[in-house]
Structure formats: C-alpha cells, structure tokens
Design goal:
Blueprint: H1 2-12, H2 19-48, H3 58-61, H4 65-73, H5 87-98, H6 109-116, E1 122-130, H7 135-152, E2 157-167, E3 172-179, H8 181-193, H9 196-205, E4 209-219, E5 234-242, H10 247-261, E6 266-275, E7 280-287, H11 290-300, H12 306-314, E8 317-327
Antiparallel strand pairs: 1-3, 1-4, 2-3, 2-8, 4-6, 5-7, 5-8, 6-7
Helix pairs in contact: 2-5, 7-9, 10-12
Length: 334
C-alpha cells in the first residue's frame, strides 16, 4: 500500500514552474499592461481634443487653467452639477451600456394622439359579458334604454353601433358611443349621473353581467367611422394589442394597407385606445357573409403593398383576436 501511494503521488503531483517559465510570464504580463496603458492614454487624449476648426469656448473650459483642472478633477461636471460627456470615451461607454451613443426622439402617448387622431370625436368602446341565463333580459333592457339615452341627449350622445358576438367571445355585447371630444364626454357623463332613469337602468343591468369594461378611444385620422347606415351582413371586429411604442409605425403602414383592402370590402372604422387598457387598436369591417370575407381577404394579397403591410405590422403585435358580430335591432350601423 505504501508503494502504491508513492507511485500515485508521483503520477498526479504538479511540477513547480521553472525559473525560465516565471521570467517569461512576468515579461508577457508587463508587456500587456504597457499596451493597455498606451491605448487608454490615446483614447483619453483623443477625447480631449476638439474637432478640427473648432475651439472650446470659455464657457466650457473656463478662463484659466485652474477652472479646467477643477472640471477635470470633478469628472467634467458643469456648474449646475450635471455631468458633461467626455467625447469618444463617453460615447464608447454609452454604446456599451445603452447600445448607442444617441437616443431617437420619442413621442409621448399624448403626442401620438395629436398626430394620429382625427381629433373631432371621442369614442367609448364598451364590452358587456352577459350571464347566459339573463341574455334575453339583457337584450330587452338595452334595446329600451339606449335609444332613449340618445334621444334625451339632443344628439350630444351618439350610438355608433351595438352588436352581439356570433363567433369569438360569445354572450358578449359590444357598444361604441360617440361624443364631441373629451368635454362632450364629461358633460354627458355628468348629465347621466344625475338622471334617475339612467341610474335605475344601471341597477337593473349589473346583475345581468359577468363583467364589463370600457376604453376611451380616438379615431385614426385616415379612417373615419361610417355614419349610420344599413349595410346588412356581418361585422368583424379585429383587436390588436401592440407592443408598447409601436403605434406610430402601425399607423404609417396601415395608412397604405387600407387602400389595398378597401378595394374589396367595406371599412367601418378604426380606433386606438387612450384610456383604459392601452396599446390597443380596433379595426371594424363589414362583409355580406363569411364566404365573401374569405374571398376578399384572398384578393387583397394580389394587390401591391398588402403583403408589405402585413410583414411590417405583424411583428408589432403582442396578441390579436377577431370576433364576428351581428348588429342589434336598434343599432345605428346594421
């Protein structure tokens, strides 16, 4: 056993480094350090030099060397304490941390609303998920209440349309209301809150529903909602949840895509959400029947520009759904 242990020690023991190996390692390490220092000094020197034909102003460097030394010691801070960029060095660091030395101009949600919306009306999209056992009661209740609400508003509250889902989210009603801007919406809501008949309607409505929600939406400027008309057939409501920050690109592509589609089918309206769940876009179309819908969608692929619209917009979508709707008897759009 002792003999076996001695052989095992010899087999796995690590030999100590030779003097020549140690000397070569130190030489290589020193060389790499010197090269690193030279590169760092060169980058810092380039960062301090102004572009050709341009000289730093007294405001940036100060009127004396003492001011320059102070700014250097403080990392290039300005008088108000905000950090000043260090030229190429700062650009390199920013590129590593953020992916780019500059950021694109970002429009706010409000800016998008101004640039994309028609601006004349505000629309409220309501969804009522009905208890199946109360479905008939619901239809009777809203069929009496909604036309009365429109009449009593003196045309300040308009019903774009009311539909029931035929394919998709069943036992669901979709209502789209139109107001004269946000001010008109606020005025009508104030009036309804003080209306005993409307409050009674809400009291009777709530037990009939599983849930309800709404969104305040604006129309796309290039796609105006249709006025009241009896088109017949079926309606398709396509709802897209966009990845945040993609609404402007969506609008740009669909502005072209709509011209491809409207050659074959009737566009009803398109809205994007401003309050409630955000980043939603809703498109509504009208078809005589599902077979015609199939054929018209196939025809669109033959038009120049439609395939490009689909390619450019599908990557902007988080999820989507399509519901086939039938208009209710009192709906303005039928």
């Amino acid at each position: 056993m002792a003999l076996l242990a001695r052989h095992r020690t010899r087999l796995f023991a690590v030999a100590p480094p030779t003097p020549a190996f140690v000397k070569a390692s130190r030489t290589l390490s020193s060389s790499l350090q010197q090269q690193h220092l030279r590169l760092s000094a060169r980058a810092f020197s380039s960062a301090k030099e102004p572009p050709q034909g341009q000289h730093p102003s007294a405001k940036d460097t100060g009127s004396s060397g003492a001011t320059s030394d102070k700014n250097s010691a403080e990392g290039g801070n300005s008088k108000d304490g905000a950090a000043k960029p260090l030229g190429k060095v700062s650009g390199i660091v920013n590129s590593i941390l953020h992916g780019s030395g500059s950021l694109p101009k970002v429009l706010s949600q409000e800016s998008w609303g101004v640039s994309l919306a028609r601006g004349k009306y505000v629309h409220e999209l309501q969804k009522h998920r009905i208890r199946p056992e109360r479905f008939d009661d619901y239809v009777q209740l809203v069929s009496e209440a909604f036309p009365r609400m429109v009449k009593e508003s003196n045309n300040r509250l308009r019903l774009t349309g009311s539909w029931l889902t035929e394919i998709g989210e069943l036992d669901t009603a979709v209502h789209i209301w139109e107001f004269d801007g946000y001010l008109g919406h606020a005025q009508e809501m104030d009036r309804l809150r003080g209306d005993p008949t409307y409050q009674k309607f809400l009291k009777n409505l709530r037990p009939m529903l599983i849930s309800r929600d709404n969104q305040i939406c604006l129309e796309f400027a290039f796609w105006k909602s249709r006025p009241p008309v009896d088109l017949g057939g079926i309606y398709e409501m396509r709802t897209y949840l966009l990845k945040p920050g993609n609404l402007l690109e969506w609008e740009t592509n669909w502005r072209r895509g709509l011209e491809c589609r409207r050659q074959f089918c009737e566009p009803v309206g398109a809205w994007f959400s401003q309050l409630g769940e955000l980043n939603y876009v809703h498109h509504m179309w009208n078809y005589p029947d599902l077979e015609t819908r199939k054929k018209t969608r196939e025809q669109a692929w033959k038009v120049d520009g439609w395939a490009e619209t689909v390619y450019n917009t599908v990557r902007l979508i988080e999820r989507m759904e399509a519901n086939i709707l039938l208009p209710m008897e009192f709906s303005s759009l039928k």
